[in-house]
Amino acid sequence: MDHTLMAAIAGGDVRQVFLGERLAADGMQIGTIGLERHRSALPVYNDMAALFAHADVILLPMPVTRDGERLHTPLANAPYRLKDVLDAVPAGTAVYGGSIPQNVYDMARHRGIRLFDYLKQEELALLNAIPTAEGAIQIAMEELPMTIHDLPVLVIGAGRIGSALAMRLRGLGAQVTVSARRETDFARMYSVGYRCLDTRKLAGQLHQFPLIINTVPADILSRAVLADCAPDTLLLDLASGAGGVCADAKELCRVIHALSLPGKVAPKSAADAIAQTVRHMLEREGLL
Prior knowledge:
Layout: E1 6-10, H1 14-25, E2 29-33, H2 48-53, E3 57-59, H3 82-87, E4 94-97, H4 102-110, E5 114-117, H5 122-143, E6 152-156, H6 160-171, E7 175-180, H7 183-191, E8 195-198, E9 211-214, H8 223-226, E10 234-237, E11 254-257, H9 261-265, H10 267-285
Helix pairs in contact: 1-10, 5-6, 5-10
């Protein structure tokens, strides 16, 4: 490009602040809106349309929204309706955000806005697994009355987060079992030394694990599956959306729903991962 790229940071939590600071350090021009309650040296705009008019790319938060109607703006002085935000975006402008629901895609398409979800990039999904795994282990160490070392632990799911968790738990000396559904996952987990269970056949198996960590966003841990848990079993549900634990699970064991851990336990590292991913997306778009 023949000019300094201008990025508008709109809404979000402290990750957005760190994201703006990281991109500014990389040489981008930054303007912000919806972050007024956080002290930062980043330029603050009061006129959303004026900011967006000068922006080469607009960076919405992760998640973009929690209720489908308003931009996620925990650091703003006032709420921002998604309709108003998207109405202020010039047609053709690239807009990036994380965990974008379908209704926001529909709203953007009707306005001629090019909307991209950076959380769908494999690069960011892998990087986000690191603080998620560390955050889950931190919670477990704070909540359990015993060490992780030599503790039988069940990790449900052999994906990015499950794999990151299993490796770190074993590094702390835990006896790690990973449950999966696919034969290739069984083989992969077995090949690196983990015990394996079939996620579809967990009933009657859970009594042996003082710590269970679920990473699968599906209806897996029903009351019937959890029936043999000890009352003091700690169940951490990391799955997005409604999670994978039945509504009355707390009657059977200790349940902690631990969502969005990267932004809670390591917001600067999470922002660095987003910045890296965004830069690569901008390069592919020809904007950098």
